[in-house]
Design goal:
Blueprint (H helix, E strand, L loop, with lengths): L1 H34 L6 H24 L8 H4 L3 H32 L13 H4 L2 H23 L6 H25 L1
Helix pairs in contact: 1-2, 2-6, 4-6
């Protein structure tokens, strides 16, 4: 099962990278077309917005996997780790319930869309554009369950990569400070 999760991690990461690269490139082309050539490519802005929305939702799913989503943690940091994990799991249970309700409502909304409801310049049926909602929230729910399984069953505590990076920088600064002090004591 580990290979499955590794492939899913890579797939989400590659999807986010591709979406980001494409919508930034499209926006750059649009800016160049407007500023240098004096005309606008109408469909670029609409496609860029769609790609950005898909990027944001897939990025949220990936952030849930990395435990990098926004969460108030100052009170959890004051608790014993075991109690904090249980409280986080209860909070994640509410998050999962919200996601399941949201997935259900998104599917209901998409199923009610008529085929003539289309993106204005691209002509795409909006039901395909809105599919980002149930897909991303389902992935996010899977990721929340995965992280809680790692924390509560396996005892592995996935850490926010930004927090890890800051802690590594602080350790490096402390090491440099100690080296400086040793060097200047002589």
């Amino acid at each position: 099962m580990s290979a499955f999760w590794k492939h899913l991690d890579h797939l989400e990461s590659y999807i986010c990278r591709a979406l980001l690269a494409v919508f930034v490139t499209l926006l750059f082309v649009q800016i160049v077309a407007r500023q240098i050539f004096g005309f606008s490519i109408t469909w670029i802005e609409e496609l860029s917005v769609i790609l950005f929305v898909w990027f944001a939702y897939f990025g949220a799913s990936y952030a849930a996997r990395m435990s990098a989503h926004n969460r108030v943690t100052f009170h959890l940091n004051m608790m014993p780790r075991k109690a904090a994990r249980v409280l986080e799991a209860i909070g994640d249970l509410f998050w999962i319930i919200f996601n399941v309700v949201f997935i259900w409502q998104a599917i209901q909304f998409i199923s009610r869309l008529k085929p003539f409801v289309k993106a204005q310049t691209l002509g795409w049926e909006m039901r395909y554009v809105y599919m980002a909602l149930p897909i991303a929230f389902a992935l996010m729910t899977i990721r929340i369950l995965q992280v809680n399984y790692l924390k509560l069953v396996k005892g592995i505590d996935p850490r926010d990569p930004d927090k890890v990076e800051v802690e590594e920088m602080l350790e490096l600064a402390a090491d440099e400070q100690r080296a400086y002090e040793r060097e200047h004591k002589k």
